[in-house]
Amino acid sequence: MAKPTTIRIPENLLKEIDQLVQELKLDRSVYLREIVSKGFSIDKEDRLLQKYIKGELSHMEVCRELGWNPWEFLSHLKKRNLHLNVDLEDWLGSAQMNMEKGKRTMRPS
Question: Which of 3, 56, 94, 100, by CA, is between 20 and 30 Å from 15?
């Protein structure tokens, strides 16, 4: 259930909103709720991705918070021109684990 709240909106922005809702024959309150919700979602994504970039969250924690799968996560990084938060030690450790795993699964001929 929606709860009422009050915010101050600059007059010029409110005029633009009023013009838009009149042109599109929308209810101003419904429109404002929708754009606040969209804006909050975008802000939440930005904040969580910044925490990921700073190393405060893992990619799986971001995925869990935003309801993304790992492929969506990579897509959003690419869209924002961000990079995986992986350092050389992570790559080397991963390569070492893969080599060790390969040795265990290889059978002598």
Answer: 3
Output phi, psi for 56, to 5 deg: -85, -20
Axis crossing angle, helix 28-53 with helix 59-66, rounded to the nearest 10: 170
Domain annotation covers residue 96: yes
d(CA 47, CA 6): 24
Q: Residue holding tokens 């897509």?
A: 75
CA atoms within 13 A on the CB side of 81: 0
The 10s digit of each residue's pLDDT in 41-99 is 999 999 999 999 999 999 999 999 999 999 999 999 999 999 888 766 655 655 555 56
**Is 1 part of any domain?**
no
The encoded tokens of residue 37 equal 């919700």
Stated pTM of the model: 0.71
